[in-house]
Design goal:
There is one protein chain. This protein is mainly alpha-helical. It has two domains: about 35-60 and about 70-80; about 85-275, MetI-like fold, CATH 1.10.3720.10. Helix content is about 70%, strand content about 0%. It has a two-stranded antiparallel sheet. Helix 4 (about 85-115) runs parallel beside helix 9 (about 175-200) and helix 7 packs parallel to helix 12 (about 250-255). It starts with 20 loop residues before the first helix and ends with a helix.
């Protein structure tokens, strides 16, 4: 005699049952959307709207606090003929690419070192976060003194060691200024890379390294076939964030070079963020001066 599984009795739906918010939230689809809505609204308000509004403004000839006139792609055509724009774009890409590569290699090496067992490891990890914790402007002002051509501790060390015979103007020369900015950005961004990659290293089981060592794998082979594949997703994400932060970096280049003051403009280490700020400030200053002149004449 076949035995059938017992059926589960379910309550019959009640006609006109009132809506209950608690039961609706318990549904997986509703709860997921409720969790997504705040983030979506934040992105729409502070990312999507400024992005598309900036595109809208780029198609107009518009002064500050005045109505704009639609000009199409005329602004882009003017930028394409501006040699300073191309020099600034080149500076920005060189700054971003070199700083990101140095931070990637240095951060990976830092993570591998502080992942080892040694005395004072926790204290070393805490000290590594200091460059990332200190306010950018404050640390950049300190670096201005370190790179000062007269009071620079770097120049003093090089002179007293006999490696050079005169002081370097670290922030007054185009090439040295770019090297200095990349160095300071690397110093500040290394903890972000190091700590993030360290978190990825903590997820790798030591058994994998032990099994590979038993099979005769060298240190290089273990790093290539175990460490790098596991760290690849983390490395991609942290590199993406680093590129975004470095490409849009404003405080560090602006404070170190005062917005790229050396003349002519094509010889200055300006980036797109500092150049855009200086152009906007100069346009606003010219507009204020013209208003003052009209008031004075009237």
């Amino acid at each position: 005699m076949a035995v059938r599984p017992a059926s589960v009795a379910r309550p019959a739906p009640v006609a006109g049952r009132p809506f209950a918010l608690g039961r609706a939230v318990e549904r997986e689809g509703v709860f997921s959307w409720l969790m997504l809505v705040p983030g979506i609204l934040f992105l729409l308000a502070f990312v999507a709207y400024p992005f598309f509004y900036g595109i809208f403004l780029s198609l107009q000839e518009r002064r500050v606090a005045s109505a704009g006139t639609f000009v199409g792609l005329a602004n882009f055509a003017a930028l394409a003929q501006d040699p300073v724009f191309w020099q600034v774009t080149r500076n920005t890409f060189v700054y971003t690419i070199l700083a990101t590569l140095v931070k990637m290699v240095g951060g990976l090496a830092m993570a591998l070192v502080i992942n080892q067992q040694f005395r004072g490891r926790n204290l070393a990890r805490a000290f590594l976060l200091l460059p990332f914790i200190v306010p950018t402007v404050l640390s950049t002002v300190a670096w201005m003194w370190i790179l000062d051509p007269t009071f620079s501790v770097i120049n003093w060390s090089l002179l007293h060691s006999g490696l050079v015979k005169e002081n370097f103007s670290w922030l007054g020369n185009k090439t040295l200024a770019m090297v200095s900015i990349i160095g300071v950005n690397t110093w500040r961004g290394l903890p972000f890379y190091g700590i993030t990659l360290l978190a990825g290293l903590q997820t790798i089981s030591p058994d994998l390294y032990e099994a590979a060592a038993i099979d005769g794998a060298s240190v290089t082979q273990r790093f290539r076939h175990i460490t790098l594949p596991v760290l690849k997703p983390v490395l991609i994400i942290v590199t993406m964030f680093s590129v975004i932060f470095t490409f849009s970096d404003f405080q560090l280049p602006y404070v170190l070079t005062h917005g790229g003051l050396p003349t002519p403009p094509t010889s200055s280490p300006r980036t797109r963020s500092t150049w855009g700020c200086r152009r906007a400030s100069s346009a606003w200053g010219r507009r204020r001066r013209s208003r003052c002149c009209r008031r004075w004449r009237s």
